[in-house]
Amino acid sequence: MSGTVSGARAGAVLAALGILAVFPLVFSNPTTTTIGLFVVIFMVAATAWNAFAGLSGYIALGHAVFFGSGAYTLAIVAEKLHMTGGWSVFELVPLAGVVAGLIAIPFGLVALRTRRHTFVVITIAIFFIFQLLAFNLTITHGSSGLQTPTPLWTAVGYNQRFYYVAAAILVLTVAMAWAIRRSRFGLQLLAIRDDEDRARGLGVRTGRVKLIAFAASAVPTGMVGAVYAYFLGQIFPQFAFDPLFDITIALMAFFGGLGTLTGPLLGALVLEALQQEFTLHFSVGGLYLIVYGALFLVVILLLPQGVVPTLASLLPRTRARLTQRAGAEA
Amino acid sequence: MTPLLEVEGLTKSFGGLRALDGATLAVAEGEIAGLIGPNGSGKTTLFNVVTGYERADAGDVRLRGRSISSAGPDRIFALGIGRTFQLTRIFARLSVLENMLVATQRHEGWARSVFRAAGSPAERKQALELLEFVGIAKLASLPAGNLSYGQRKLLELAYVLVADPDVILLDEPAGGVNPSLLHHIADRIRAVNAAGKTLLIVEHDMEFVMYLCGRIMVLHQGRVLTTGTPEQVQRDPAVLDAYLGGAEDEDDELDVAAVQL
Amino acid sequence: MGPQYAKAVVDGVLTGGVYALMAAGLTLIFGVMDIINIAQGIMVILGAYLSYVLSVHLGLDLFATLVLTVPALFVVGVTVEWVFMRRLADRERTAMSILVTYAVAIIIEGILTQVFGVSFIQLHASYVNSSVHVLGFYLPYIYLYGFALAIVLLGGLYAILYLTRFGQSLRAALQDRRAAELIGIDVERVRTITFGIGIAVTAAGGMVFGATNSFNPNSGYDLISRLLTIVILGGLGSIGGALLAALFMLVLEDVVAVAWSPVWSTLVFFAALVIVLTFRPQGLFGRAAARAQ
């Protein structure tokens, strides 16, 4: 029984990897590959956010700090080194991840001392500090923004290069989220979500556990921020540090199912594709915001568990299988 | 020989209220000691200070002669003091078995925990044995939030045992429990003690305390009024006075209003 | 201390009064409902737009528009509470409320963008453009009038809280929801009306804000981040704390703008929050919450 389950699961993982790999080859028109790239970028960000917030219950609304720091790291370093484009610029992507992870440590040390609503507000405040810094520092060139190197690639396969870099980050991020979820560390995060003080009383070093998860979720977010900056060719403070970014990735995780592995992936797929479609067909305007906000409300109020857990509990067969597996483990 | 756990001159105030006022007591290795006292006498505060949830204003807590009064709850647990809560605190959305696994890492560094699965076969086996011991093994895969009140008390007892602590502090193990489970809980506490654990029990149910404890300490207005065998304590007129005099209901917990206008 | 510092302090106090009013609504809602209303910022902007429409199209005086906008936003508040807030489960209510009110804010921002576009506007009146000469500097009348309005409304809020039967119920619900229910208070109704009042004050705040700043539908973000900073510093749920924190922060901001640069004054605003919370997680004026057991 458990053999067929894990067999089916391995099959599903392989199929997903296959689709991820061939997608930009099959649907190679630039509009579609651009949408694909953005979907993958948000899959990474939502999965990384969920690995911290979904498990620990700390609703962080400051992950745009990591996204923006990653974007600016790539832009600033490329400028200082006079890089001219090409693959070598991608070598800055891991650096962007490291910078984001390092920023997460003091950020987390301050913010994670507080709980629940105060935590949410302090993450928002720290976000605004970074946005203001980006607007006002000389190194970021303030509101005029920064250019990133322009790769001299031909139109054919141009988007695909960015796509595959982002896809590689996605595979690593999902692997990380999976490892966290099934590790003792992940169990400690879940215990913190349910009762942080009790967890401390059972020996869980809550401060350290939260900080590590926070920093770990910052790294991939910074990496895709760098890919995003390179792809766009220029960055501005209000796009690199966008308050909507935070609420978007939170919504994606909520939509799919907080704390689940597939939830944020599904959320990013549906919502980001929808958003890209929207921006294509309607010019920038309020309509998009209205639909987005309404969708958000529908998800939170009608599907508070998210799509994945709701579907799972609706399918009796899945439920039976889940209990059987739990029984087998027990 | 030094007692296993010593509390000396503990003082703790909340605003104007003195919850602990020089409380001094000792628990010897291998005994089941009882801590009783009227409402508001400081029992829960004493537990909170000993287990690191509250910092005392003055005084000292020692485990095997070593001061632990500056350590936090996680450290104190690692040093070998486990506790349960008056209102049980379990991880409601984790399964009963997962609740057990949260605790199995008394001597583990964080780096190891990141790379380790949430429970080796050996740990799972031990967890199930303990659940078997308290009698709720058949509920292992249920979400802990589905357990009855008494079952939660048993789960709390079981997961405190996972880390093999030297001393276990039980905060009202009989409180609010269905009478049919009371005997079972008392029996399990005896069995834990027989296995070599030292216990300190706070309890309102006098029959329960008298039945279990070899020695009882009476806390009154933040200090220990008297100590003795159940019979001695029962006969002590000062104890009766404390209970009658302290009958007006003060709360152990300070209710700081959420809002100041 | 030159006159520019005196002006900075006076400016800070006067604008601080208006922020105090808007923050009072936010902190009151939190105290009674455990809800952090992220939409508070956009509600202020909505109030500003409503005053704009009424003053431009009906020729109403800015202060006269409040007769219509305050009740209008009260109704908006009651509706939002009734449709959305009521459905939030008690568990993780605060976290969920942040997301729900964020979504409400996005929708209102979208509607305002559809109707008014994204160009910046400002409210105009004779007293917006003329100034009074005090202490060696010029002060637009609107600052004085706005401050006076804020004081009057805050006084009204206190009167409601301490002199009316509703206020009594509200304070009871603030202290202890269950106990309030036990003594027969309709807590649901109290919550709905509290949310309405908390939103209604933003109409007045919005009018003064719109007359002293140029704004567009995007301005809600900046406002809510400031208001949140103020209520957290003041201690969530404490109206008195919000008043002090609003004055403190706005004076600080204006003084930094003079002493250093306006560019960094906003940064100081948020940095102050981070620094304070590092040392006092309960805020400057808040008391430590009772330990949950």
SSE blueprint and pairings:
The complex is a heterotrimer of chains A (330), B (261) and C (293).
Chain A: H1 2-26, H2 30-56, H3 64-80, H4 92-111, H5 116-136, E1 146-147, H6 158-182, H7 184-201, H8 206-232, E2 234-235, H9 237-240, H10 243-256, H11 262-281, H12 286-302, H13 307-314, H14 316-329
Antiparallel strand pairs in A: 1-2
Helix pairs in contact in A: 1-6, 2-6, 2-8, 2-10, 2-11, 3-4, 3-5, 3-8, 4-8, 6-7, 6-8, 7-8, 10-11
Chain B: E1 5-14, E2 17-27, E3 32-36, H1 43-50, E4 58-63, E5 66-67, H2 73-79, E6 81-83, H3 96-103, H4 110-115, H5 121-134, H6 149-162, E7 167-171, H7 179-194, E8 198-202, H8 206-212, E9 215-220, E10 223-228, H9 230-235, H10 237-245
Parallel strand pairs in B: 3-8, 3-9, 6-7, 7-8
Antiparallel strand pairs in B: 1-2, 1-4, 4-5, 9-10
Chain C: H1 3-33, H2 40-57, H3 62-83, H4 93-116, H5 126-129, E1 131-134, E2 137-140, H6 141-163, H7 165-175, H8 177-182, H9 187-212, H10 219-234, H11 239-259, H12 262-279
Antiparallel strand pairs in C: 1-2
Helix pairs in contact in C: 1-6, 1-9, 1-10, 1-11, 2-3, 2-4, 2-9, 2-10, 3-9, 6-7, 6-9, 7-9, 10-11, 10-12, 11-12
What is shown here, in short?
The complex is a heterotrimer of chains A (330), B (261) and C (293). Chain B is an alpha/beta fold.
Explain how this protein is built:
The complex is a heterotrimer of chains A (330), B (261) and C (293). Chain A is an all-alpha fold and 330 residues long. Chain A has a single domain (2-329), classed as Orthogonal Bundle (ABC transporter involved in vitamin B12 uptake, BtuC), CATH 1.10.3470. Helix content of chain A is 78%, strand content 1%. Chain A is built from 14 helices and two strands. Chain A has helices spanning 2-26, 30-56, 64-80, 92-111, 116-136, 158-182, 184-201, 206-232, 237-240, 243-256, 262-281, 286-302, 307-314, 316-329, and strands spanning 146-147, 234-235. A two-stranded antiparallel sheet of chain A has the order 1-2. The longest helix of chain A has 27 residues, at 30-56. With 261 residues, chain B is α/β, with parallel strands linked by helices. Chain B has ten helices and ten strands. The longest helix of chain B is centred in the C-terminal third of the chain and has 16 residues, at 179-194. Residues 246-261 of chain B have low confidence and may be disordered. By secondary structure, chain C is an all-alpha fold. Chain C has one domain (3-279): ABC transporter involved in vitamin B12 uptake, BtuC, CATH 1.10.3470. Chain C has a two-stranded antiparallel ribbon with strand order 1-2. In chain C, strand 1 (131-134) and strand 2 (137-140) form a beta hairpin. The longest helix of chain C has 31 residues, at 3-33. The A-C interface holds A 57, 59, 61, 110, 113-118, 120-122, 124-126, 128-129, 132-133, 136, 197, 243-244, 247, 250-251, 254, 285-294, 296-297, 300-301, 304 and C 30, 36, 84, 87, 89, 92, 94-96, 98-100, 102-107, 109-115, 217, 221, 225, 228-229, 232, 236, 263-264, 266-267, 270-271, 273-274, 277-278, 281, 283, 292.
